[in-house]
Fold this protein.
Amino acid sequence: MSAQDDFLKTIISHSKEYGFIFPSSEIYDGLSATYDYGQYGKELKNNIEEYWWKSMVRMHDNIVGIDSAIFMHPTVWKASGHVDAFNDPLIDNKDSKKRYRADVLIEEHIEKIRNKVHKEVEKAAKRFGDAFNMNQFRSTNPRVVEYDRQIEEIENRMRQALESGDLQALKQLILDLEIADPISGTRNWTDVRQFNLMFATELGSVSGEASVIYLRPETAQGTYINFLNVQRSGRMKIPFGICQIGKAFRNEIIARQFIFRMREFEQMEMQFFVRPGEEMEWYSYWKEARMKWHRNLGMGDGLYRYHDHIKLAHYANAACDIEFDFPMGFKELEGIHSRTDFDLKAHEKYSGRKQQYFDAELNQNYIPYVVETAIGLDRMFMSVLSASYADEKLSDGSERTVMRIPAQLAPVKIAVLPLVKKDGMPEKALEVYHKLKLEVNCQYDDKDAIGRRYRRQDAIGTPYCITIDQETLDKQTVTLRERDSMQQERIGIENLVSTVTEKTSITKLLTKLS
Ligand code: GAP
């Protein structure tokens, strides 16, 4: 098993042991790729949502938020193209009986070649030291030039096959690249087939007949069909945005890697409506703004990178992902798409109702273009978990597991701990706790030795612990322990609320963002 697999397993078991995430229906042996958020998971999720919602809706005068229904008229999905084109090209290995996305197998192969290029560059940089000229090396080193040529050729073949829907060409590419199943190690592949990802269910009609209805695979369409409602009721002027946070459902064939790919998940999406012709400007704006939002958390700039799409979705004229360095490597965390006027135009056509905006400045009616930012809340959650987890050896030889969750996102902000369970300390600690809990999510704990209580808080990522001791009773001061440095300082009880909220509130993140 690779170190990456080991790390992912560690995160999964830590999440379960400390109440972040439980496998769903566990007492019935579980339901594959379905998870429940526990008591700390829900708090962390709430904080991520708050950071996103406030950064979008509160910080922009021209962005509002809505909450549309999961069920929509079935024609919505015909118009959006999901009935006909929301497919994954799948291929099975006949020996392992495992199913894969054909394009993902090819992309993983490309990634391996990229890693070879990366290694050559690293080796050369070491060899040449300060004199190293990367551009010159990459354009002249025969091995690197050959790898780049291979990548380009594979990408071209894949793009052509995907765009023309030529599934045989896709299979041929997998065979030509001699891609083997990572489990069986064989190249005994079936043909590639398309598989629609929408969940269908039935809605009982008045006459007793049932009609097919879909669980939404994205929140975005709920925004499009409300575009004019919001624009008119809110007297919104272009450019403006509409946000949503909500569940989405996809019948993913290969749902795995913990909460990275699930069949029921949550999205935080924003559709930004702009003048036709101005979409590329806004696309660049949001591409940069969203990266800034991620990096603002301070988990490490190197954990993020852009990936421009080779194959554009049926609705896009430009698209990229913000990728995060997950335990299984760099993978998509968020998508930024320039969706043109595809969706609104299609809804106008299928509904027969005009989806146009009157631009008073131009004295003109038009269907706006849309730039979308779409992030998976669960993936965002996983990125925070994996960047935060650390096993540490301390200077006194002991060990601890600490979740270095950004303080503003941490589920519990502060733990209130009486040093000992006597001499009036628990009573004083409870008094402080009851006052603090009106301001921030906090916890009272008086079980076990103080060291063990610190470890428990470290393991759920609590950024601050305060200890109530004899001095507290005498002088109204407490020790404030910071999670990452483990440094302690003495502060007055009257300053506690302001100190802790200053360090842990989402407002602080938002201020840094503006
Ligand atoms: N409205 C556009 C849209 O839905 P997407 O790239 O398919 O775009 C947006 O999805 C985000 O939703 C992804 O970047 C990812 O974070 C998340 N996501 C997509 N499928 C997911 C799944 N099966 N499980 C968890 N998150 C998923």
